Amino acid sequence: LPHAECIRNVFVGLGEAELKILIDETQVEDNIAVAEYGGVLYPGVEEGLLHLSQKYALFIVSNCQSGYIETFLEKHGFKDVFRDFECWGNTGTSKSNNLKSLIARNKLQCPVFVGDTEGDQRAAYDNSVPFWFVSYGFGQCSLAQKTFDTFFDLANEANRIGAISSPFLVEEIEATDTFRLQEIGKFRLDVWRQETRVNEALFPSGMWIEPLDHRARHWIAIDSEGVIGSARLTIHNTLLDNPDGYLFDRAKLRVNLPCAHLCKLVVLSRARGQGVAKELNRIRVEAAKAMGAKSILVTASEKNGRLLEKIGFSDTGIREEFPNRPGYKFAAMQMDL
C-alpha cells in the first residue's frame, strides 16, 4: 500500500489534520532512519542483484514516499545496479500506473515484474507483464508465472534464461497462462504490423488472440533481451476442425487423421538468420508425432515454406489470402507422418 494509505489504516480514528501531519512527518523520519541504518537484506539479494545487473536492466516500482528509494540505494551501494525507478511519492498514483510509465519511459519490450504482494501481482496483470512471486515476502499470490522461495532461486532461473549457449532458448507456454498468452498475442500483432498489412479492425484489444489459442500448445523463443519468436500447434480429429482443413477438403486432397496444424509462426526481424523458425518447426513436428498425429497441415509464408520443404512438407499448389492479413498469399502445405 502507498505510505499515506498505510498510515490511515494503522491510525484509524485520527482526524484529517492529524493524519496529514503524521503522514508528512513519518515520510521524513523513514528516510532518515534508512539513511542511518539501511535495511536487513534477505540472503542472496546483494550478490544476486550485482550479478543480474551484469546481464539485465533492473528497475524498481514501489509504493514508497519520495526519496526512500534513492536513500536505500545510496546506503547499500546499489546506485549503479538499477537504471530507473518510480514510486507513489513521486507521482501520487497507483503501482499499476507507475509500472506502465516506467515501461514506456524505458521502452521495455519484454519485462518481468518481481514482487511479493497481491498489489504487485495486480500491477503486473494490469500491464500484461509476467509476474514472478517471491514467497518469502509479505503476501500470497496465486496467479504468478513463477514462484521462488529464495532470491538464490530467482537469480538462478534468470541466469538460466540469460545464459544461453546458442543465441536463444525455446520454452513451452501453457495455454492457461494468461499473462504469457497475452504476451504472445501482442508479440504476433506487433511483428506482423511491421511486415504486412493487418486488418486492424479484427484486433481492437491490441493482441492477436484466437479462441483456439486457449486449447493449443505454444512455444516461445527467448534471447537475453526477451521474446524473439513464437509458434502454435493443435491436433484435430476431423479435417474441418483443422483451421486450414477447408482448403484440403475443397481440393479433395487426402489427409490422414488425426491431423496436426502448425500456425502463428512469428520471428522478430532482428533475430532472423539464427535458426529460430527452423527450431520452432522442428519442435512442433516432433510434438505432433508424440501426440499421435498422422499428418500435419500448414499455410506458410514463402520463406517458411522453403524451410518446411527441407523437413518433408509438400506444397499442394493451393494459395490462400486471409482476411486478417489482406494482400498476402500463403501456401497450403502437408506432411504425412
Question: How would you characterize this protein structure?
Answer:
This protein has 337 residues and is α/β, with parallel strands linked by helices. Helices cover 39% and strands 22% of the residues. It is built from 12 helices and 12 strands. Helix 1 packs across helix 2 and helix 6 packs across helix 7.
Helix and strand topology:
Blueprint: H1 3-10, H2 16-37, H3 45-52, E1 58-62, H4 68-76, E2 82-87, H5 88-91, H6 95-105, E3 113-115, H7 118-126, E4 131-134, E5 146-148, H8 151-162, E6 169-173, H9 178-195, E7 217-223, E8 226-236, H10 245-250, E9 259-267, H11 276-290, E10 295-300, H12 302-310, E11 314-321, E12 329-336
Parallel strand pairs: 1-2, 3-4, 4-5, 9-10
Antiparallel strand pairs: 6-7, 7-8, 8-9, 10-12, 11-12
